[in-house]
Amino acid sequence: MDLERRLAEDKEELARKWYDLLLGAYPPETQKIWKAQLDGFQNPVGETMKEATAKLVGLILSWDDAAAIGHELDRIIKIRAVQDFKPSQALAFVFQFKKLLRDTYLDEVKKSGEWDALLGQEAKIDNLALMALDIYCKCRQQVFDLKVAEIKRAQHNLLIRANMIVGNPA
Known about the structure:
By secondary structure, the protein is mainly α. 81% of the residues lie in helices and 0% in strands. Helix 2 (11-23) crosses helix 4 and helix 2 packs antiparallel against helix 6 (87-112).
């Protein structure tokens, strides 16, 4: 068995399974809608996550374009950063890919002895997790900054209405 070749051959199936694992964090009703509705205009979140996981699988396997990997991770993490997930839940999908690879190929790796190839893929996923953490923290900071700016605007408007501030000082 040549693990690298098998991974390339199974790329679409791995992407589909990873997408299913990603959806597993959502309620069953949401999963049904996102799986059934393939139109990107009616289901932009599901479509974005499906596209991004499909692209990420290929990018992880080749591991030659950090910017593209970051871009696809960012597409998923922006969605999950504004949802009601703990950070560990929001980023669990990265480690689910690692488990997917083990579950799918471990028996074959045991027989063929290609431990280095499997461990190499797992190391890529570990690096992916670190990239995901950086992106998640950046996204959450943006959310907090937007909330603070909105509170400041609301307080400023209240002060204007109460005639405690005249005009709009710079």
